[in-house]
Structures
1.
Amino acid sequence: MTVMDQLNDPRPSFSLELWPPRTPQASARLSEAIPQLAELKPTFVSITYGAGGSTRERTHELVVDLAMTPGILPFAHLSCAAHSVAELRDILSRYLNAKVTNIVALRGDPPLASDLPLPDGELLFASQLVDLIRDCGPFTIAVAAHPEGHPQSKDSSEDLYHFCEKLDKADFAITQFFFRADTYFDFIDKVRKERINKPILPGIIAPTSISSLLKMSELSGAEIPQELRDALLGASSDPTSVRKVGVEAAINLARQLLDEGVPGIHVYSMNSMASTIEIHEGIADLCASDFEYPQ
Ligand code: FAD
């Protein structure tokens, strides 16, 4: 089965996002965790890219390493902000040479810690990157969806129009994280009314701290329900309790989504293997566990 066969299968898939580790210690921890991740039988594992190229080599190395790991199919994130077309072509050609043909095509955001906007690249929008990737080779391409609207968009119908245009050219989409099942289903209704029927995987996150959640939500536009804020604040003196609250919220949301029918669940793992494994345990009965790997 190809990754698209799996995403189009009626049985829901399970996939996750990783960051390229920043330190040798984090890298060693991730290497140790990879066999555990493979046991979860993810449909794919996507690897983030620091817009502007800050993680260019680290993303490439991790993606190529994972491509050689049995049971793991990596998707390399690639963003067009602050890059020339020649740089993007070079990155794509290195992936092709390494037999990596799965890309998440993005515009890119500045890092969480930065208050400065990213300089424009030669391509302004992710849909233009999708065109470039198609021109470079036989890639499977995912794009980002923003169920609550892109935070910089002033007009929700224009935002929806641009998203549909982008997904029409790509193979599937992964949503920004959100905290209410209705947010996803309302968005899907609008996209389906535009006759775009490609898979849109809901992205879910297990918040690990109220401060990082607030910062991420500010950037992504995700509304945080008051009850989740209260639960995280109530647990905030103890990191273990915060993690537990976050994992429980993620499992509850994923189960609601799976009960109502979604193509799969994509977990923003933030490289927390313990949380990812717990979320998987909490939903494994509702996800496919016997897909054959596309490698
Ligand atoms: P676009 O699709 O280009 O949209 C950006 C804005 O431009 C929207 O407001 C849209 O309405 C508007 N727009 C689009 N096309 C047009 C047009 N033709 N004319 C006028 N306006 C237009 N960021 C990173 O830096 N690295 C990552 O690894 C990363 N991974 C992500 C993974 C997922 C699944 C998601 C959901 C987000 C990820 N992001 C990442 C964040 C992403 O880069 C930001 O959300 C960014 O602000 C928008 O990216 P996009 O690809 O959706 O952009």
Note: The longest strand covers residues 13-18.
2.
Amino acid sequence: MRSTEKAASAVSPGFEGFAGALLDWYARSARDLPWRVGPAERAAGTTPDPYRVWLAEIMLQQTTVPHATRYFYAFTQRWPTVEDLAAAADGDVMAAWAGLGYYARARNLLKCAREIAAAGDWPRSESGLRKLPGIGAYTAGAVAALAFGERAPAVDGNVDRVFARLLAAKGDWKAEKTRIASLVRELVPADRPGEFAEALMDLGATICTPKRPNCLICPVRDWCAARAEGEPERYPVKPEKKAKPKRQGEVFAIFREMDVLVERRPDSGLLGGMLALPTTEWSESGAGGRPEWAKEKGDEIGEVRHVFTHFELRLTVVCLDLEDTPEGFEWMRVSKAGDAFPSVFKKALKLAL
Ligand code: ADE
């Protein structure tokens, strides 16, 4: 008998046999992902590199697998170890992150790599990992389980959805999330915690999807209360999202031969530490006012829109001619700047070109 089944009597009521069924399915159906050590390799004794596990987890927050994959290859090729990343120049890492969004992740990534390099090794427990910059409850659990085999849960939005369905969770969503977090912690099997986490990720991504869950082929359908009710896509039942506030402003495209005028945004705050085009302040009315050096009217050449976590932005793109270099700005090759810009400025630059 496998130890996952042996432990079944200790498992939460209603979930006997659940972990075993999920892991059997995972052994047959695991996705092949570049940061993953698959079930066959794990069985042969290969253990995952914590650096690759951690890097992938940070990249995958708020980002799809295909989009993160491109960046994962670029980062691991350029910085194959956490020590390499720790020794990188800030600007190089921020530029390599450009387009992935949520730039605080990149700043914390560097801080975290430097702490680990200075300490000489990774903390190998969920609680130790949790103390590192940019590592929250989910990431600490995921890295502890995937890379170090600790019996820790990795509960993100996808796992919340899967369990909201398994439980047909109808209560207040915040309270349900707390219930789910403690249930998952109880269910993690002692012998294969990493694969259990990966199996839940794969289940959420390929079968228990947000819109059309494919219950017919679900390995845990027998445990699923929402399926028994007949409408699993009703779950999770979350409070309605408020509409995002809107902000607006102007962004300046100023060229000199092959160069464009850029600034480095301050480290803290939105798009902190990223290379940027000059802009006015972004506000609800857009009445932030231009800096003294940008008083000339210029050519309004169009508009770009971008959705941030907390607001939607509409920027008017203005082309200006400028003789002097304003303080705090510099000229950079258009192609180099374009590569290093976050998406909103990539869009503005593209429009201006
Ligand atoms: N989503 C979050 N972490 C993941 C991982 N390690 N593999 C696949 N999808 C994920």
Note: Residues 265 and 310 are 19 Å apart (CA to CA).
